[in-house]
Every structure is written in structure tokens, then in C-alpha cells.
Design brief:
Length: about 280
């Protein structure tokens, strides 16, 4: 059996689409869809799909995504767990592509491929396309990459994760890799994502996600020098117009601001999980 775990919180506008995209998959194996969220609206939306016996609602206590995932891990029956969110939706025949690599017993986790829904013509939209392309290039090279939290699957070998982590996808990837398993990337397993459309939300989201990888040095620290080196080629090859070159320069400046924020909030002030994990309204 496959357990699809969909975490959500007050995403009534996007959750039905996310659910339908999963139900429309051509899944040959038996599966269950666990939808987990603390709010009443989520429960009401799940009831609208009550005719589908594979759908189950789990009510969590609203203590953050890692805590919600731990509850889902406890209830899941599948040997393969697929994780996704209520504010994104997957493409056609994605789940079959995502779980196929598990035919190899050495594969422990498989990452999907986020695709930006934002318009590339504006500044924040261009940034989203640049960064998703950078992540695609990174994962395609098979380097020491983390799975994307928007869509990934792994064997049922992780029973619990720390509940104070900012980037649970990175922690889960590292835990699986530490057990000697391979991490695979399937670029055809596309998941469609709306990214922030203002700088304030962009910074909040990136402090949370990027900051998660340096929350503890033992979990695989990233630094701005590594980022500049990895992005050097893309700086010259990805932008196609003068406007895009200008947007790229601004992105590099924004990433410097981001790293300063991460250093200040996480390393110096040591802000709590609750302070860092903030809802990003413009992605809903």
C-alpha cells in the first residue's frame, strides 16, 4: 500500500484542487490519502470527498508541520509514503513516476520537480523560475540534494522527526541518506507551486526553508559561498534579456539579505520554531 500524506492549514481555495489532482492519478497500487490539518474548514472540505473511501481526515493540534507529519507517520499504513501540501497540485501520472524508482531496493527516497505557476515577466515571478531551475539543475546532477517538500516519497523507515525543525524535507532526506539509501530525482514528477509575489513574504519563506539547513551544523550546513559558486554558471546562462540580467543581480543581492537575516534570527537571536514558521499568505 501507498500512503499519500497531504498537510494543510486554512487552504480552502487550493485544497480541493490538490485533492482532485491526486484522485485523478492513474495509481495501480492500493493507496490511502491522509489529509491532515487542525482547522474546521479543512475538515469540511474533506467531507465533500466522503464518497472516496481511500480518503481519511486527521486532525492535528496545530503545532506545526513536523508535529502534523509525526501524527501522519503514526497512522499511515503504506510501505511507501508520499508527502505533499494543500497549496500545490501535482501533474498527470506523476505518482506512478514518483514511486517507480522504489523497484530498486537501494532507493530510499524520491524527489519530485517543483514548477512555478508565477509569471516570469515580473521580478518575484522571475526569481521563482530562476530558483526552481537552479534546484532542477542541482538535483539532475545527482549531488547531495534534499528532496523538495512540495512532493517527495520515501520508504516507511522514518517513524518520527524533531518537531522544532524549519525544513523537515531536508531533515527527512538526511535521515534516509544516513541509513545508506540512495536519493533519486524524477524531473517528470512535476508539482505546480505558487510562490510569494512580494518581497516580505519571499523573505519569510526563504528564512524558514533555507534557514532550516543551517539550524544545526550537524544537519548539513549550507553557506553563501557555496551558493554563489553553484549559481555562477546560471548567472550567465539563465537570463535571456537585459531585464532578466538586472532581475538576476537583484536576486543575488536579495540572497545576501536573506543570509544576513538567517544569521541574525537563527544563529544570533536563536528565534523559536513558532517565530520563524509563519504563514505565507501570497502563496495561497
Amino acid at each position: 500500500m501507498i500512503s499519500i500524506i497531504l498537510t494543510t492549514y486554512k487552504e480552502s481555495e487550493t485544497l480541493p484542487r490538490a485533492i482532485r489532482a491526486i484522485l485523478n492519478q492513474n495509481i495501480q497500487q492500493e493507496y490511502e490519502l491522509l489529509i491532515i490539518g487542525p482547522d474546521k474548514k479543512t475538515q469540511e472540505i474533506v467531507k465533500e470527498f466522503s464518497k472516496y473511501s481511500q480518503i481519511k481526515y486527521l486532525k492535528d493540534k496545530g503545532n506545526g508541520k513536523p508535529a502534523a507529519l509525526n501524527l501522519a507517520f503514526e497512522k499511515a499504513k503504506g510501505k511507501i509514503l508520499v508527502l505533499t501540501d494543500g497549496d500545490v497540485f501535482i501533474g498527470k501520472n506523476v505518482l506512478e513516476r514518483l514511486i517507480k524508482p522504489f523497484q530498486n531496493d537501494n532507493v530510499g527516497a524520491v524527489s519530485g520537480n517543483p514548477v512555478s505557476l508565477n509569471l516570469k515577466e515580473n521580478l518575484l515571478g522571475y526569481w521563482s523560475h530562476f530558483l526552481t531551475n537552479a534546484a532542477h539543475q542541482w538535483r539532475s546532477k545527482g549531488e547531495n540534494f534534499p528532496c523538495t517538500g512540495y512532493l517527495y516519497a520515501f520508504r516507511d523507515i522514518i517513524k518520527k522527526i524533531p518537531e522544532n525543525v524549519f525544513a523537515e524535507d531536508g531533515i527527512i532526506t538526511q535521515m534516509i541518506r544516513s541509513k545508506g539509501y540512495q536519493i533519486v530525482y524524477v524531473s517528470e514528477a512535476k508539482v505546480y507551486v505558487k510562490y510569494p509575489n512580494n518581497f516580505k513574504d519571499w523573505l519569510k519563506q526563504k528564512v524558514r526553508s533555507t534557514g532550516g539547513y543551517i539550524q544545526k551544523q550537524s544537519r548539513g550546513e549550507r553557506n553563501i559561498l557555496q551558493e554563489i559558486i553553484k549559481g555562477f554558471k546560471l548567472f550567465f546562462t539563465y537570463p535571456k534579456t537585459l531585464k532578466e540580467f538586472f532581475y538576476t543581480i537583484l536576486l543575488y543581492l536579495a540572497r545576501i539579505i536573506l543570509w544576513l537575516n538567517i544569521f541574525w534570527k537563527i544563529k544570533i537571536r536563536k528565534k523559536s520554531f513558532a517565530k520563524i514558521w509563519q504563514r505565507i499568505e501570497s502563496t495561497k
